[in-house]
Amino acid sequence: MTGLCVRLVYYPPYHSKYNAIERYWAGLEKSWNGYLLSTVDTVINRAGNFCWKGMRTITRLVSAVYEKGVKICGREKRDLERRLKRSTVLNWWDITIHPKTVLL
Questions:
Q1: What does R_g of the chain's alpha carbons equal in angstroms?
Q2: Residue 104 domain-assigned?
């Protein structure tokens, strides 16, 4: 509805040293060193107090069930693929996602 176009560029597997989220997780794991993470509240609070490069983490517990093995096929897949524009150079790692057309 906003018309926002998203460009997703990410690193292929095994390139974690260049990936900021991997460096963030490494820092978070180091900050947990010595703490007994025995409850969900402890993990949420410890993660919520973590700062990385001056940014404080925002944490919350997601209690929804993550559905595994969900696949789309047929028309749904074709409709989604039409909204993706893959880079000719980095076909799988550089994708522009165009918004879904919504008629009001």
A1: 19
A2: no
